[in-house]
Amino acid sequence: MNYDAWFQCSAGCDETYPLTEVIYRCKNCGGLLEVRHNMDLLKQRRATEWKTLFEQRYMRTQYPYGSGVWGKKELVCPIIDDNNIISMYEGGTNLFWAERLGHQLGVSDLWIKQCGNSHTGSFKDLGMTVLVSMVNQIMAESGNLRAVMCASTGDTSAALAAYASAAGIPAVILLPKAKVTRAQLIQPIANGALTLSLETDFDGCMEIVQKLSARKDFYLANSINSLRIEGQKTISIEIVQQFDWEVPDWVIIPGGNLGNVSALGLGFLMMLELGIIDKLPRIACAQAERANPLYRSYQTGFTEFHAITAQATQATAIQIGNPVSIHRAIRVLKRFDGIVDQATETELADAAARADRTGLFNCPHTGVALAVLIKMVERKQIRPDDRVIVISTANGLKFPDFKVAYHDVTPGDPPPRYLNTPLELEADYENVLKQISMHLEI
Predict the structure, then answer these.
(1) For labelling, which of 5, 157, 412, 433 has a CA lying 20 to 30 Å from the CA of 399?
(2) pLDDT per position as a tens digit, 334-381
(3) Do 386 and 317 reside in the same domain of the chain?
(4) Contact predicate 197/230, CB 8 Å
């Protein structure tokens, strides 16, 4: 069946544009565009048939349908020719049953969706496979694009550089100088992208890249481009699939530019409309206290929103004061009876370290979500038998400085709550045995 999708203005004027057009905002009113699908056609296939199809494809080797994204191609971007798809087997990430951590917190059904177990180490791969595949199709049809570009706090640049490199498409990356980790900086460099380190923050990089993208020969890869959202929404579909199509009670999502809040909400709503699920979860968005414009809006009942200048935070990928997807995220949170909370620098670092002691290795942004989880449990917003999914957005290995700094305390400074430092001993059997015995008796 020839399923269809297109861009449509989200601001209410309902202007439409083909997905192959290089456009990010409505020409009529300037509103952000969203991808819309022909739901009437999609509904002609029964919910049981969708489930069977997705199960048949999931994690198989038939290209590109083994991908966690392209296995749901009809719900994501049906107009792309399979020959133009650039896929690295993204998605299919595991749900980590956080049994020990959940037991400590008093939540028996706690899971961490490990979105960082992906090709470039973050959930950004899910959206980038769709966007770069579309660029590949546009270039195959017209050849008028010279490069694809983004502003980034690290993870988006890694995903764009990798997928563009696989496609043979030039990539341009704008990063805020000294505000990304070395592990993140080396990824676009290694993949051959033109990497520009600017004396500004993410919002400053975003302002410049949007001006550059006004040129029709450059293609913008930030989440203002809703093709990214289409790939990221498969997280919610995959979560439900991994639970045999049962819906969790809560999903907790770190929020910076707020594309993931929007994306997961859209995925759940699409499944609801197709009859794949019969209820919605509640969504909690977790922000760093130093970059919390959505939290401030939530405190007013979403009646007000003001962009802020984000302060430095260990959660660098969500250090954003003027999120592009703010209005989409607010709509989703209202629809899902959602809440927004925040975490201090100490709270996010302690939460990440505490969870690490139960077998995880968390990035700082996951630490923000875990800190909010702890608060919600303490406030009894989350009940002991609720099924709770925490979205882990990136692999902790991308943030070595964050991990090392927590356990490398300057003499005289107060130690963090979950400090664990190596003991330096002489190579003496009796002394080694004594220290082991002392540790095990604690």
Answers:
(1) 412
(2) 999 999 999 999 999 999 999 999 999 999 999 999 999 999 999 999
(3) yes
(4) no
* Alpha-carbon span 354 to 346, nearest angstrom: 12
| CA-based nearest residue to 262, from 250, 271, 253 | 253
Alpha-carbon torsion, ordered 184, 185, 188, 189, to 10 deg: -140
Alpha-carbon 200 to chain mean position: 23
Q: What angle do CA 134, 136, 141 make, to 5 degrees?
A: 95
In a domain, 423, yes or no: no
Q: How far apart are the first and last CA of the chain?
A: 65
Domain end position, chosen among 225, 243, 263: 225
The amino acid that residue 48 corresponds to is T
Amino acid at 29: C
pTM value is 0.94
One domain, residues 245 and 334: yes
pLDDT, residue 99, reads 97
Residue with tokens 């430095």: 312
Please list the residues that pair with 387 across neighbouring strands: 109
Phi/psi of residue 345, nearest 5 degrees: -65, -40
Asked whether the beta carbons of 10 and 328 are under 8 A apart, the reply is yes
- Do residues 213 and 141 both lie within one domain? yes
Tokens representing residue 237 in the block: 């579909």
For residue 59, being part of any structural domain is answered with no
DSSP structure string for 282-328: EEEEEEETTS-HHHHHHHTTTS------PPP-S-GGG--SS-TTHHH
Interaxial angle between packed helices 326-335 and 259-273, expressed in degrees from 0 to 180 and rounded to the nearest 10: 40
Contacts 24+ apart (CB under 8 A), 193-202: 193/157, 193/160, 193/161, 193/164, 193/165, 194/147, 194/170, 195/157, 196/172, 198/174, 200/176, 201/176, 201/309, 201/310, 201/319, 201/321, 202/151, 202/152, 202/153, 202/176, 202/310, 202/319, 202/320
CA distances from 351 to 142, 301, 338, 371 (A): 50, 27, 22, 5
